Amino acid sequence: MPGTKKIPQRQCIGCGQMKDKKELIRILKTPENEIKIDTSLKKNGRGAYICKDKECLLKAIKQKGLERSFKMAIDVSIYDELKKEFDELGK
């Protein structure tokens, strides 16, 4: 049975679909409670995943996906910053 490698799957906090980890963007909550986009997918902290589609980001904002994932209140300014970073990524 050698040769079958498991591909890590994660659930999008916007649309709820399971996708390959590399197809998603990781949003990170650092130990200092900062919210950032983790492009390396390896930084230390709690992560939530979202599709590379801006519609999924808007759904996650509306459905409070980040609040549920990080178990904390998210300030509106953080959402604005995430939208700006999303635009810079070209999505």
CATH architecture call: 2-Layer Sandwich
Total of helices: 3
* Order of helix and strand elements from N to C terminus: EEEEEHHH
Q: Percentage of helical residues? A: 25-40%
What is the CA-atom radius of gyration, in angstroms? 14 Å
The whole-number mean of residue pLDDT values reads 88
Strand elements, count: 5
SSE class? alpha+beta
Pick out the low-confidence regions: none
CATH topology: the name is Hypothetical Cytosolic Protein, Chain: A
Oligomer: single chain
Q: Work out the count of structural domains.
A: 1
Class in CATH? Alpha Beta
Strand content: 15-25%
Taking the sheet with the most strands, its summary is: 3 strands, antiparallel
CATH superfamily descriptor: YlxR-like
Tell the overall outline.
Answer: globular
Q: In order across it, which strands form the biggest sheet?
A: 4-3-5
Ends distance: 39 Å
Notes on the protein architecture:
- It is a single chain.
- The protein has 91 residues and is of the alpha+beta class.
- It has one domain (9-88): YlxR-like (Hypothetical Cytosolic Protein, Chain: A), CATH 3.30.1230.
- It has three helices and five strands.
- The strands form two sheets. A three-stranded antiparallel β-sheet has the order 4-3-5. A two-stranded antiparallel sheet has the order 1-2.
- The model has no long low-confidence stretch (mean pLDDT 88).
